[in-house]
Each structure stands twice: as C-alpha cells, then as structure tokens.
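Morning F.,

Quick status update on the modeling queue. The single chain you submitted on Monday has been processed. Sequence for confirmation:
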Amino acid sequence: QVQVVESGGGLVQAGGSLRLSCTASGSILSLNAMHWYRQAPGKQRELVTSITSGGRTNYADSVKGRFTISIDNAKNTVYLQMSSLKPEDTAVYYCNADLVVILSTARLETRDYWGQGTQVTVSS
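Structure tokens below.
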C-alpha cells in the first residue's frame, strides 16, 4: 500500500512565500517523477511543475521564476518553494507521484498516486 501526503499549505499575503512538501511512503521500489497540480474554484486541475528522479524540471509559464521544485530521492519527498505569491495562485495543491511499486515478491508495477491536497490561499 502506498500513501502520498502533502503538507505546508496555508494563508499568506500577496508577495509572500510558502513551502509545500509531499512524501510518498509504503511499498515503493523507486520514484520516477513527482508533480504538483493545482485546482482553483470553478477551474480545471492544472499541472504546475514536475521533477524527475534525475532532477529534470519543468514549470507552467504562470509560475516560472517564482516557484522552485526540488526532490529528495532518499526520502521520496518533493518540495515546492513558492515565492512572490499572487492571489491567482490560490488553489488546492495536489501532489502526484509516479512510482515503481512492489505488489508482490515477483511483481513490480509503475503506478501514479495522488495526495489529498493542501489549500493555499493568497490574500491581496
């Protein structure tokens, strides 16, 4: 069984910073990549940023230069440092983990798992 848990959300004023964390735990052999998505009220969930186990990253244009994703492979943990926050960054932020999981002694599979989400609210 695998769990993905986010933390670090909260309320911050515009221009402020927050750091989100996401940890995957359980029967994990290895981590392929981890992603942060967000969903604002009335909008579709969108991909914010991704990072591979090798450290390759990509960012949505809306967050480039303000958000930084990093990874600790040994801890199966990804971090999202958010700076210069804007009211339009307000959303529930979800972590998605792309993992190789151990289903049995002789069975491995690549699966992705979602966290429960953490609320980020930026006040103007």
